[in-house]
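Q: How would the structure tokens look for this protein?
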Amino acid sequence: MSKGGTYKHRDLKEFIIDKQVKGAIAENLAKNYFLNKGYLVFPNLTAQGCIDMVIINQNNKIMKIDVKSVSIRERDGYPVMRSRTLLQKKLDVKLFYVDVNKRECWFYQENENHLKRRTKVEKL
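A: Here is the predicted structure in token form.
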């Protein structure tokens, strides 16, 4: 970023590529996590969409997953927590967060108490 808070064209392009690479790494870590837990994993074949993968556990329970890589706000150091879209809510898509740097993951769950919006953090 240049002085004054504006992006130079090259900086913005690098930012977008870095974000895409980070997202791809997060999705691959999530796939490995679920495979190691014994799930069948069916990844999305397109780059866009509200579902990144469908997973099935040993009891044939099906879950639709949207993988989110953890992003930290520069201004306060807190993670950005995203909400499900209306379509994701309708389809019962679960948000699965992956912290690429710490190699940790958790599910997001709806809760009025912001301190209870994530499940137990697990190592990848």
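The first strand starts at residue 40 and ends at 43.

The mean pLDDT is 84.

Upvote if useful.
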